[in-house]
Each structure stands twice: as C-alpha cells, then as structure tokens.
Design goal:
Residues 61-299 form the Aspartate/glutamate/uridylate kinase domain. The protein is an alpha/beta fold and 326 residues long. The chain has helices spanning 2-18, 30-37, 40-57, 69-72, 74-89, 101-111, 126-150, 190-198, 224-235, 262-270, 278-290, 306-317, and strands spanning 61-66, 93-98, 117-118, 121-122, 155-159, 166-170, 183-188, 202-206, 208-210, 219-221, 239-244, 259-261, 296-300, 322-325. It is globular, with a radius of gyration of 20 Å.
Amino acid sequence: MMKSFAIALVLLSLQATHGFVSSPRVSRPLTKVAAEEGSGDSFADAALQVSAVAGDLQGQIVVVKYGGNAMTSPELKAGFCQDVAALQKIGIKVVVVHGGGPQISKMLETVGVETRFEGGFRVSSTEVVDVAEMVLCGSVNKEISSTICSAGGRAIGISGRDDSLLKCTKQINEDGFDLGFVGQVETVNTKLLEQLLDAGICPVVSPIGTGIGEEKDIAYNVNADVAAGRIAGELGASRVLFLTDIAGVLNKDMELFPTLSVDDIKGLIADETITGGMIPKVSYATSAVQLGVGGAFITDGRVPHALIKQVLGGDMIGSGGTFVTL
C-alpha cells in the first residue's frame, strides 16, 4: 500500500514544483491519493522519508545499467525515462549505460551472422561487433536519450568510442575461450562524464569501446554490466543499479538473496548457483563496491518505475532485489 502511495507522492511533488509531467497512473490529486492509501500520518511519514532520501542524494551520481524487458516493453521504457527525468529534477546526477542484446541478436539473424555465448559473454567477431555498434550506437542509444528528453529531462547519447570514453584491451576468458573482440575496460574518461553531469545532462552510454595505442581504431564489444560497474567505480558513484529480468540473485530453489557479500558471491559462482548472464552482473557489482561505490543493487527491471523506487525508496518502498556489499 505504501509503495504506490510514496511513488505517487514523489512524482506528483515533482509535477507541482518542477513541471514534471507524470504518468497517467499517478496523476490523481494528492488528497485523493492520501484518502485511498492511508491516514494523514502515513502520508506525512512517506513524504518525510522520501524527502530525506532525496536530500541525501542531491548532487550525487547514480549509474544505471538498463536492459532486458525494461527496454523492450513500451510501458516500462516510458516509465524508466520518466524516472531518469524525475531524478534529474531533484538534483540527482544519472548515468545510463544500456544494453541491447535482443536487438543485436535480431539484426544478426537478419543479416545472417552467426553468434554464440561463452560464460555470459557474446563471442564477438569483427562482423558481430560491426552489427552491435550499428544497433547500439544507432537506433537504441538515440531512442533512449530522446525519450528521456521527451519526459522532461536532459540527455545525450554517446558511445564508448566518443572522446575515448572506454579504452579497452582484448578480454581473455579465464576458461580459455576466445571471445573475439570483447573488450576489457582499462580506463574510463571520467572527465567527459563529469562535464556532462555538471551541465545537468544525463550521459546515455552505448557500450562499444575503443582500442589503445596501435589498436586505437579497433572497436570492442563491451558487456553493458561490465561497463556500468566500471563507470560507477571510476566516478565514485553513490549507487549503481543493474536492472534485470528477474527479481535479483536467486538460490537454487529460486528464492531471492536480499544481500550478498563478496565472499558469498565467489562461493555461489563456484557451486554454480550463479551462472550465465548473472555472472557479469554480480562480478561487476562486486568490483564497483570494491572501487568505492556506496551500494550496488541487482533489481527487477520488470517492475514499473523500478529505478525511482529503488533510488528513492530505500527500505520503505524499494523494489526488492539483491544488495551487494563488501
């Protein structure tokens, strides 16, 4: 009950004070929301708690890995971009790092290029990287930045090759698989990101990196989870969120782990509780925390307005997920 009420309160407050256009589902008058959701005391408690969280995060950086169903569902996509715009309007600096695996796979099939995965990473030949760059840096990247702007925010779409944002070397898989041109991020041009954030602009980053030295003209396909975790760490972000298509990290009985430590994660990978595409998420959530990020969350991107719920909700209205700690 308090979840929907508190989110409605945040969005309606933004509408009243900043001109934010909220979703129709939260456009009821505040008096009606209060009557439906609880007493005046409950209303005040929610307002105070959300206000406290928002105040603590003003001027702070939040990095979000955005992918999965949250990108392919029109309703979830609109809600996500509204969330980014809303967070900007209350002074929180947001960096979006997006994926686009389904879109890449569809285009690869269309053009007849074979692809496969090893250890959660797409094996990337030159042809695969060409298609990935076309899809991610083209239609996907620009659609996200444009939709954030349409929701009342400010955003610019860039790739990891722009101004050498993500400098990479070839990633060597620990199991001996040749992943092709999959990039391991060596450096992040944080100055570029900080300049955009200080100007009130959300960088929307497409995870295609660039080589170093004699390989500076080589494009590398970078896992979006990898890129988000490294960017968050280098920026010293307050939080990094990985939006997924499941509730968070699950045990073998499909039950959620609310929190996991670095040592927990190592053990769960070793006994194959954590497998496939979840491995990069937990690994780079761990790396981000070790680099000094205030908190790393792996949470369900299928929940409407998952971003704003997790960032502003805390224990009160957070959308669940798994919190990764040292």
